[in-house]
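Blinded run. Sample ID left blank on purpose so nobody reads anything into the name before looking at the predicted structure. Input follows.
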Amino acid sequence: MGAEVGTDPRMVEHPAPPARAGAGPDTRPRVVVVGGGIAGLCAATGLAERGVDVELVERRAHLGGRVGGWTEQIGDGSSVAMSRGFHAFFRQYYNLRGLLRRTDPELRRLTAVDDYPLVDARGNRDTFRGLPRTPPWNALVFALRSPTFRARDILRLDHRAAAPLADVAVPDIYHRLDHLDAETFLRRINFPDSARHLAFEVFSRSFFAPPAQLSAAELAMMFHLYFLGSNEGILFDVPDAGFDRSLWSPLQKYLTARGVDFRFGTSVDRVEPVGAHRALRVHDDTGSTVEADGVVLAADVAGLQRIAAASPELAGPRWSDAVRGLRTAPPFFVHRLWLDRRVAPHRPAFLATGGLQPLDNISVLDRYDGDAREWAVHRGGSVVELHAYGLPAVDRPGREAHTARLRQQLVRRLHELYPETARAGIVAESALHQDDCPLFGPGDFAGRPGVRTPHPGLVLAGDGVRIDLPVALMERAATTGWHAANCLLERWGLPGHALRSVPTRGRLAALRWLAARGREEGP
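Blinded prediction complete.
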């Protein structure tokens, strides 16, 4: 998928299902893809490139799902590119980057963020700049140069309890750790509190959940993906302009040229099996129906649950129960500010915070986003984005007052960390308060539905769907999307698409020995 796909020589390629001689379909298969986020776009691409007739149904007016982009007019009359906030495109997101290479083979529309500093309430500061890329030296150097992690803390770690971090394999790590929450696990391995708040908590909250609500297995898999399992590094790229202009509009043109039909502003209500050939009939909220040979449900958790509940004959009660058991993470809040003064030039493009509730990170968009830079240059100001994750749920009657308090608290934190912004006027602002991200809580893995379903023509895709590979967040969405396409293509005897991942287990013999010793010694 694409040109150079990664620099790690231990990157794993998972072969594509091959074509079966003489097994191709008599007629061109037709598939409805429900959802135009990353998962749905990967599925649509994988199918269309193999000659499948694809119709993509999206309830919004734009593509990209939670990484979508659109245009709004702000208070000064400017039309600005909008999104749901900052997203990091890590170098080990091989399958997502493979999708983007369809329209940008050298990924020129991504730009590197040269550092990703972390700061806590005491002013302790960590940085990923200059780290070695090879495991385990990347994690060791990061720990030893951190002001919150002293050399003796490494000796105090409980090697037996920490052993799973050294030998992550999927799904084995979930069998071993999914019963624990991340906070309990870190306490058991004697991970120092200050380092936990500055490092691990920042990452866990990137899953939109505080450590007490995140599975320890998910934390261990994340540590493998970003540190011990990959030498791609912890730094990342970001789109160089609004998501729609830089990512999804070019991909829509690419897919349209391959026969994909897009229907925006339409929600699928239910799906029912039809006839002896196991076709499927898709009903939408306009009253229209479409018969298809396959359906990819790449909706968010609430959308998937709504469709499954309205489709009782689709895939049986066990599958319906698994879908019903999916949970969403606590709410998050994104506050974007257009300021009439510049943020100081030494401020990083992205700053993560720990122990500075409710703030989790600050982005200075005009440092990397061309659309925001154009506005900032024209107005002599800056575009700043403030994120807060893992927030308490608030009933709708109290939502407006809660949002007002959040805005005040986040702006106060901005002024504390970047004092020059206290003198800036707010030209315009926007706020987004959502709770539609999947939760990876303790005990969730065993019941999480996978890509395949009991109906051979129905597959799932999305970042909340189980796939037994070391992937997370946007890369899980992309990987399940490609795999969903492969499952349908294999059914029709058509060739699939190779998947790629970081190594599928701990890559260092010494650490694997340590992990095995920990298992032998027991809990």
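Unblinding after everyone has recorded impressions. The chain has a mean pLDDT of 90.
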